């Protein structure tokens, strides 16, 4: 009996050990399969992300490209990714990258989607100085400018002009800095070859506002600004056609949106207390000093825009022949900011502007002697940037704006494959 019992025990243990061995083998096989599937899933995810980054690199080089591209990988990663860039219904680009990796469970795919936004419209008043074309006008000794400077053209230097903030230009600086008489001082550096910033095709937004909620006139008019009392925002404007007063405007009146415009030339002078944009479908002429009632660039809430379809001109008259001071943001869409008869007569002193200047073609305000150290005719310049304008929400009413050509990533979405586990 004892021998039979021992034999039964041995056979039983053998069966149990066999069962355990089978289970261990099964567990080992499943673990190997799980690890393989996990590795394939991770590989698929990494390949999809790699495809998205390749697509981003291509989009960075050419934001107008739309299409599909596929690449096969071998080596550290083995699989395929396909990326495409298409336009969504809102017109904004969508980048999609899809991976394909062969795994034990079959073909594994992951997806990455990237959407883009262009950001909000930016005001041109963010620039202390900007031009589409610099022409043959030079920055020279005694010129000083505070605030951001940008040109879509080539900037010309002579002597020792001083730039207090960074300077950017799409087409370079001539002559090169430090050569050919160009000893310009760039306190915060300069950068060439940057992207151009497009001007608007028209000033319709401003003139629509003048019609709906503002004041719109026909023909040539003169706007005389008055500061009112010591209180804020109680200034007013008188509008003349020739010698005849045709309108009186309280700038803080209910329903007035802060825009005065005309189809003809608009001439301006005086003291502003409030927020106002003055526009012309022709030229804006500055007849005398235009200043804010509160001239502090930290506490004042006065702000002025002088917007012309063609030129903004400092008039050659008695009032302007001994210096001229301007507080405001100047915008000349197809023309220039310039001094009338800048190349004739005697020097007129300093042209001081606190605000910003944006123009299509850089206009001259004076000429200099061959030594580049003294003014021959017209004005020498002192342009100060009104630092309040660096806040994108602070601008003259309906002042022109632009959209940057660059894109920002608005969202990054990943559809991660979950591997099959046994």
What's the quick description here?
With 422 residues, the protein is α/β, with parallel strands linked by helices. The chain folds into two domains: 2-118 and 408-415, no CATH class; 122-402, no CATH class.
Notes on the protein architecture:
- By secondary structure, the chain is an alpha/beta fold.
- It folds into two domains: 2-118 and 408-415, no CATH class; 122-402, no CATH class.
- Helices cover 16% and strands 42% of the residues.
- The strands form five sheets. The chain has a 15-stranded mixed beta sheet that branches.
- The longest helix has 60 residues, at 2-61.
- It starts with a helix and ends in a 7-residue tail after the last strand.
- 37% of the residues are buried.
Q: Strand count, sense and closure of the main sheet?
A: 15 strands, mixed
Our estimate of the beta-strand percent is 35-45%
SS-derived structural category: alpha/beta
Head-to-tail CA distance between termini: 46 Å
Mean pLDDT, all residues: 86
Total number of domains: 2
What gross morphology would you assign? Answer: elongated
Regions with pLDDT < 50 over 5+ consecutive residues?
A: none
* Helix coverage percent: 10-25%
Number of strands: 33
| Rg of Cα set | 34 Å
| Number of helical regions | 2
């Amino acid at each position: 009996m004892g021998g039979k019992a021992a034999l039964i025990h041995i056979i039983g243990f053998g069966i149990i050990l066999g069962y355990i061995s089978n289970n261990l083998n099964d567990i080992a096989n499943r673990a190997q399969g799980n690890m393989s599937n996990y590795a394939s899933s991770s590989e698929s995810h990494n390949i999809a992300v790699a495809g998205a980054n390749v697509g981003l690199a291509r989009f960075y080089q050419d934001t107008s490209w739309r299409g599909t591209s596929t690449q096969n990988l071998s080596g550290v990663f083995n699989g395929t990714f396909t990326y495409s860039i298409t336009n969504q219904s809102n017109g904004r680009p969508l980048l999609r990258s899809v991976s394909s990796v062969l795994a034990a469970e079959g073909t594994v795919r992951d997806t990455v989607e990237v959407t883009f936004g262009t950001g909000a419209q930016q005001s041109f008043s963010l620039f202390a100085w900007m031009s589409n074309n610099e022409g043959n006008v030079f920055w020279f000794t005694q010129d000083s400018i505070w605030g951001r400077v940008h040109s879509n053209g080539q900037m010309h230097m002579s002597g020792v002009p001083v730039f207090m903030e960074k300077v950017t230009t799409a087409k370079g600086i001539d002559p090169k800095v430090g050569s050919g008489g160009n000893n310009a001082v760039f306190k915060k550096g300069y950068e060439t070859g940057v992207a151009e910033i497009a001007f608007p095709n028209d000033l319709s937004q401003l003139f629509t506002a003048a019609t709906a909620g503002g004041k719109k006139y026909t023909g040539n008019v003169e706007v005389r600004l008055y500061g009112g009392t010591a209180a804020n925002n109680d200034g007013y404007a008188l509008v003349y056609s020739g010698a005849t007063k045709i309108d009186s405007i309280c700038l803080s009146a209910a329903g007035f949106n802060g825009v005065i415009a005309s189809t003809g030339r608009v001439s301006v002078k005086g003291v502003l207390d409030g927020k106002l944009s003055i526009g012309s479908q022709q030229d804006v002429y500055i007849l005398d000093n235009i200043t804010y009632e509160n001239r502090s660039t930290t506490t004042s809430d006065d702000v002025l825009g002088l917007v012309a379809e063609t030129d903004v001109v400092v008039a050659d008259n008695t009032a302007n022949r001994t210096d001229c001071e301007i507080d405001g943001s100047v915008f000349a869409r197809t023309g220039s900011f310039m001094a009338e008869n800048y190349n004739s007569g005697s020097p007129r002193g300093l042209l001081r502007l606190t605000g910003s200047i944006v123009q299509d073609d850089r206009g001259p305000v004076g000429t200099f002697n061959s030594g580049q150290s003294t003014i021959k005719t017209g004005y020498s310049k002192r342009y100060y940037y009104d630092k309040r304008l660096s806040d994108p929400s602070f601008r003259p009413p309906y002042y022109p704006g632009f959209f940057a050509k660059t894109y920002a990533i608005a969202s990054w979405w990943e559809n991660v494959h979950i591997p099959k586990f046994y």
